[in-house]
Structure formats: structure tokens, C-alpha cells
Design a protein that fits this description.
single chain, 108 residues, mainly alpha, APC_suCDC26, ubl conjugation pathway
């Protein structure tokens, strides 16, 4: 069996900080599910009258707008050779495209 050099992985301080932030959020969410406490305000919806209500509303609006924007270049388009590879359902393979059963007349 051929040996190859081990893959080198570089972890930066940004990676560690991001991991620690996600871990803290995960732990806080588990605590929120158990106790209902949310001291950081990460999981509850802001209520009108809260100091950060307008900021949270703006963030939610930006997230909705970002989700609704569709890039036409991201749409899946069939390649020229894909016409021969049209996938049929199980019923179409068994029954046939016309739904009349076996097309060749060979009964089993």
C-alpha cells in the first residue's frame, strides 16, 4: 500500500474564537431549553418597548431579504447530455410510460 504525506491542517486564532463562540451559544441554548433563562438575549424574541427591539426587527428583515434574493445563475440547468439520462420513477419503469403494462408483449 502506498503511503502519502499526512494532510497538514492549520488552525488560526479566528477559528478557535469562532469555535468557542459557537460552543458558548450551544451551551446557552441547552440551558435556555432546561431553565428558560436567556441572560444574553440570544434565543428570545424582542418585545416592543425593549431597547434592542428595533435592532432585532432590522436584523430579521435583512435576513428575510437575503433569503428571498435568488441568483439566476444558481438555478440548476440540465446539461446537453442529460436528456438521455432522464430518471423515471419506479412505477414508470415497471408499468411503462403509457401505463398499459409491458410494452414488448412478453408476459411473466
Amino acid at each position: 500500500m502506498l503511503r502519502r504525506k499526512p494532510t497538514a491542517i492549520t488552525i488560526t486564532s479566528d477559528d478557535i474564537a469562532d469555535f468557542e463562540q459557537k460552543l458558548a451559544e450551544r451551551i446557552a441554548y441547552q440551558k435556555f431549553l432546561k431553565t428558560g433563562e436567556d441572560p444574553n438575549g440570544w434565543f428570545r424574541k424582542a418585545q416592543p418597548g425593549d431597547p434592542d427591539f428595533a435592532i432585532q426587527q432590522q436584523r430579521e428583515a435583512e435576513q428575510r431579504n437575503a433569503q428571498t434574493v435568488v441568483d439566476p445563475n444558481d438555478e440548476l440547468k440540465p446539461l446537453p447530455g442529460d436528456k438521455a439520462r432522464i430518471v423515471r420513477s419506479r412505477e414508470e419503469r415497471i408499468i411503462g410510460a403509457s401505463g398499459t403494462g409491458n410494452q414488448t408483449g412478453n408476459a411473466r
